[in-house]
Each structure stands twice: as C-alpha cells, then as structure tokens.
Amino acid sequence: MLFRKCLLASFAMLLGGAMLLNTPAARASNQAIQQNQAPHVLNEMHAGIKKAIDELVKRKEVPGVLAQVVKDGKVWSYGAGQASIHSDRKMDPEFHFRIGSITKTFVATVMLQLAEEKKL
Hints:
Blueprint: H1 2-19, H2 24-36, H3 44-58, E1 64-71, E2 74-81, H4 103-116
Antiparallel strand pairs: 1-2
Helix pairs in contact: 1-4
C-alpha cells in the first residue's frame, strides 16, 4: 500500500514537473504541432494516464492535474480537478505555468526506481 501511495505521489510530482516545461517557447512549438495534427483519438496510454489522473483527483490526493504528452509530433493534453483550492475554476490544458524547482521530481523518481530494484 505504501509503495502504491509513493508511486501515485511520484506520478503526480512527475506530471507537475512535466507541466512546468510548458514555457512560452515550448508552447509556441506545441501550437505549431497542434495545427498540423489530426483530431485525437484516445489510445491505451492516454486512457491509462487519464484514469490515473482522475483517480488522484477523485481521492482528493491533489486538487488538480494537467498532463501533456507529445509523441510522434502529436500533442495530447488533459486537465482534471480544480485550478485553485480557493475557487471552482476547472483545470484547462491551455493554462500557462512558471518554471520552478523540479529537482524533487527527479529525486523522487530515482528513489522509487531504486526501491523497486531493492537497492534502497
């Protein structure tokens, strides 16, 4: 159970760190890609990510999450939950975020990998 909680928390931190990469330069690049892509159809990977995010939000482990996947030049974005704990504003994949410290995200990911390999 503890491993599952750590894994879900790490996933949330990883998604949070990935969202921080949504800088104006990256956003302009993504907008150019989005203009050329066909309408998105959820595949298994996207469905799995969506399910994990919805579960985190439903269990109130995080107030809201945004995720973005870029694969083969195609962009998939998903938002769930609240943008603020002080309002009912919903998360929107078009939101912008400032880059902050993402060191903890990488440390948590490596620690979970080492724990899984029984090296911790």
